[in-house]
Amino acid sequence: MMKKSTSLLGFGCxxxxxxxxxxxxxxxxxxxxxxxxxxxxxxxxxxxxYHNEESELFIGQALKKYPRExxxxxxxxxxxxxxxxxxxxxxFNRQLEKCQVEYFDNYLxxxxxxxxxxxxxxxxxxxxxxxxxxLGKIKNLGFSxxxxxxxxxxxxxxxxxxxxxxxxxxxDVATGDAQQLINICNKRNLPIIVMEPIRGGxxxxxxxxxxxxxxxxxxxxKASALALSYVFNIPGVAVTLSGMSCMDHVVDNVNxxxxxxxMDEKAKEVIDGVLAEIKAFKTVPCxxxxxxxxxxxxxxxxxxxxxxxxxxxxxxxxxxxxxxxxLEVKPGDCISCGNCMNACPQRLExxxxxxxxxxxxxxxxx
Length: 366
What we know:
- This protein is an alpha/beta fold.
- The chain folds into two domains: about 10-280, NADP-dependent oxidoreductase domain (TIM Barrel, Alpha-Beta Barrel), CATH 3.20.20.100; about 300-360.
- It has helices at about 25-40, 55-65, 85-100, 115-120, 125-135, 150-155, 170-175, 180-185, 210-220, 225-230, 245-260, 265-280, 300-315, 315-325, 340-345, 350-360; strands at about 10, 45, 70-75, 105-110, 140-145, 165, 190-195, 235-245.
- Helix 2 links the parallel strand 2 and strand 3.
């Protein structure tokens, strides 16, 4: 896999800076890509659905001025959007056009879980992509994964994959089955691409008391650096993706990649302390990936969770009420269709959470 020399830090194109109209801010984002590239970052990860299907168009334009052999481009087949087996080829060829390339270095089946993997098998997606690999249009074939360890084993047994993309961070390793997934990949000597190392930014701005512990140990604004450094140190990790939204994020992450925080006993104690502080709060572990959107009822699910988490973390019930009053569609308007649960990589019970948030709001006393 990845015969080119691959940078440890990868540039994720899911959270690019946006204009007030909600479009990608091409000028700002281009400067970010240029800075990353000039400082050794050569891995760029996008997908069909990122930024309302605009991300691939942007990164294709942004990288066009650089020699094709100097960067590694990854994108993904949106299995969840396929309506027929024939649509696989249509999407793939359109992605080549959007990204303005003749081949993809890394290509993934996007967001594999029990349901999407079954669809991929039914539509013979892997067979089509394997043929594209033989034709030289794909150099390395893998998949991004959001499910149980047993499901991972089953997908890995299907064909000879070149890599796996996993959501890994110190929170998920401590609270979920992430370590099992790591062990499975390590046993097969399969390279790991990491997504969500800062858990959608949560680990950089979580519980105030947790951030204070990090500040005391390493100085201010080191929460993201600690999270990235932890992932860099995981055995088998080839690339760690960071979805960066502004130039400060790029500069900070590049500096961390050049000089990671040592994962020694001090780091272990700090992370243990951070985890204890996080566990003391009842927040919703949403990464703002927006796979749950659009909502048939019109709910802005990630925004509601972000608003609720801010309330739980900082206790500002007046701010919580103010933000709830601004919503045209409130959590209580959820119709419990379950579409969001099927799409959520974190497997959150979103309808129940919406009911809980509405109930907590209704019970506020001032």
